[in-house]
Amino acid sequence: MLFAALAGGATMALFTDVATNANNSFRAGTVDIAADRDLGDPIPGPMFYTTIAEGQPPGQPPPFHPTGLWWPGRTVVRNLDVRNLGSLQVRINRVSAQIVSINGVAPPSALATSFANNMNVEIFVAGHPGKVLYEGSLAKLLAPQTTVHKPVIAPLVVGGWPPMVQLAYEVTMSSTAGNDLQGIVPIVSFSVYAEQTANN
Question: Would the pTM of this model clear 0.85, i.e. be above it?
Answer without folding.
Answer: yes
